[in-house]
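Lab meeting tomorrow. Look over both lines:
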Amino acid sequence: MCHDELNLKQVARVLDVHYMTAYRYVRAGRLPARREGAVWLVRSEDLDAYRGLQTTAHDHDHSPSRAPGVVDWPGRLRSHLVAGDEAGAWTVVESSLTSGWSPESVLLDIVGPALHGDETGAGAANAHLAATTAQRVSAVLAARFRRRGRWRGTVVLGAPPGEHHAVAITVLADLLRLRNIAVLELGADVPPAAFVDAATEADRLIAVGISVSTADQLPGAASVATAVRSFDPDVPVLLGGQAVCSPEISAIAGATGWAEDGRGFLALIADLLPAPRPRGPAVSSAGVSQQ
C-alpha cells in the first residue's frame, strides 16, 4: 500500500458515507481502485477527482447515483427489505438475475449494500425486518443456485461473545455454499467453547471465521481465536466485519488472516482450499499406469 492510497474505510470517512456505499462506488466503476490481496485501495488523486465530480453534480442538481439508465438495484431491494416484504424482495432479486447478475454478485453487490444503505431512514423495527428478510432471501438464493457435487470442505462461522449482529454471517455463509463449501453457521454472541465444538465436528475443516462489527468486540474475537488454537494450533482463524480494516487490528484478535468484505473473505478461503486431485492415474509414454 502506497502512502497516497486509502482503503475503503478511509474513503468512506472522507466522503462522509457508509463503508458499503464507498464499496458500491468502486464496484460500479464510479471510483477507480485497485485490489491488493483482500483490500481495495483508492489513490488520493482519484478520490479528489471524484469529490470534484460530486460537487459539480450537486451544483447541477444531478447526482451520479441518479444517472439516467442506471438501475439502483440496492435501492430497489432496500425498500422491500425494510418493509419485511419477502415476496417483493425476491422479485427484485429475480429481476437482477434476469438482467445478467450472477447469484454471487447479487449477494455481494446488491443484498450487502441494500442492508447498509446510508439513506434508508429506517427505524429500529425496520432495521430488524430488513435483516431477517435479507437472511431468508439469501438462503433461498443459495439453495436454488448451489452447484451439484460433493462439499469441498467446511468453514465454521460465528460472532464472538457480545457481538449481536449476525446478518453478515448469514450472507457470507450462503456465498460459501454457492461455492460448494459447507458451513457450520453458529450465529451471534457465540461462546468460544461452541466454536471449538463446531471445529471438532467439522468435516474437512478449512477455517474458522469470526465476524465483528465494532472494535469493542475484538477482545471477544481474541478469546475465540485462543480457544480454537488450543484445540488445533494449525487451524486458520479469519477475521472480518466492519471493525476490521488493517492487519494490526487482525493481529490484536490473534487472527491468521483478515478481510474487509465478503469478496475478500472468499479469496482467503479459496487460497486455503486443497488443490484438486487428478482425475485418474498418470500414464507413462509406454502406456503403463504410474501408481
